[in-house]
Fold:
Amino acid sequence: MKKQNFDTVVVGSGTSAYFAVDGLLRHGQQVALIDERPFGGTCALRGCQPKKYLVSNVEAVALASQLEGQGLTIPPQTDWQALQILKNRFLEGRPEAELRQWQKKGVTTFQGRAVMSGTDRLTVNNTVLTADNIVLATGAIPRRSTIPGADYLQDSEAFLNLAQLPKRILFIGGGYISFEFAHVAIRAGAEEVTILHRSALPLKSFDQDCVQVLLTASRALGIRVLLNQEPTAVEMIDSGYLVHGKGGQSWEADCIIEASGRVPNLEVLAGGEGKVDADRRGILVTPYLQSVSNPRVYAIGDCAATGSMLAPVADREGQVVVANILGERQQSIDYAVVPSVVFTIPPMGSVGLTEQQAREQGLEFRSRQGSTSRWPSSLRIGEAEGFYKILIDPETDRLLGAHLVRHNATEVINTLALAMKYQITANELADFMWAYPTSTSDLKYMVR
Ligand SMILES: Cc1cc2nc3c(=O)[nH]c(=O)nc-3n(C[C@H](O)[C@H](O)[C@H](O)COP(=O)(O)OP(=O)(O)OC[C@H]3O[C@@H](n4cnc5c(N)ncnc54)[C@H](O)[C@@H]3O)c2cc1C
Structure:
């Protein structure tokens, strides 16, 4: 076995690792970076970025379709194969370019699976890497079901890379990935799109009034959203696949995508030699992202039992871990204001407390809410469904939570998050001279 020593070894080359390695290099550290898959991680190669190629295409189709007969005649249609070429052009060569970029900056890179083989070391291929600090940035992987026929199920990555769009697609799980992909599939021309969700509440971390509006919009498009339905087995039949449900029902599909959640990827801890404690939420860390059981080890991004599994959270953890490793000052992260978005059409955005959470916490609040479907900004683009809900602390006039489902919710939620974070009051938002008429200028009517 070869042996090499570094200041810091980082496992995983996703977005959290990017910020960590970049920061450590700026401080002159000798860094090793390992990934078993192509360099770049989930967001860039298998998540946010390729997904947005598909979403942007169907957004254009949707906007034109909404105005069919109202000033537009022939709405465009998705050319799935051409769209795949466009998306793949963005992805091609990225991992190699990233690898070269790190190497040019002096990072020692390894391609292979790393396993902690001691409290201060990792083994990758035939090399043992020792380090003062080890940063685990190993991300998450799709939760896999164990029902009979589970081998027929495909994951989100397979959906992103479908060479042809199947006619009948069934999604298992009512989370954001299923909803986003179902909207892509139906707008791109799939004939039958079904989501099976095992409870009565899909998208459960979002405001349920907004979710109801999204369900109405999804069903109006022809997406079958079936609640309280759990698959028990899948079999291959002549015409595709047959999914059996708990209540005796069954559904046929040409392609089944399992998107019932993501779980931390903890293969790096196999064998337990690293003495790094973890549970089903991920690697257990202090508020400073340091392992609770092995002070040499830090965990960031989706593999850490910290905030939501989202790219901006991973980025921030990557930045903060640098300060904590270098010991300049101990930094922790405030996870209270993290906006999140479901890229459906209309899209849904959320930040802060939901109404239910505010009630559970016994907080006083005034709620400004209502439909936006008759607002000029919705009418002029033919958007049939839209809703907002803003929770405001009556004493301080600050926002406790904000929830939107309508066009541009993806951008407006960021403005609301900024207002929450920097304690801009509802009245200040209402008084501000927003460029007009824009989706953000509609905030005036939402907060007062
Ligand atoms: C379909 C999809 C859509 C998404 N959309 C959004 C979105 O719109 N917005 C958003 O904010 N987030 C989105 N996410 C989530 C986002 O992609 C993740 O939160 C983010 O990528 C996590 O980054 P990370 O650095 O923690 O891990 P990752 O980017 O997952 O990187 C982890 C890397 O570690 C490597 N690795 C793991 N174990 C080992 C090992 N033992 N040895 C060597 N290498 C190893 C893996 O190969 C991987 O490349 C999406 C995710 C998916 C799957």
In short: The chain is about 30% helix and 25% strand. The chain has a mean pLDDT of 97. Residues 48-66 form the longest helix (19 residues). The first strand starts at residue 2 and ends at 11.
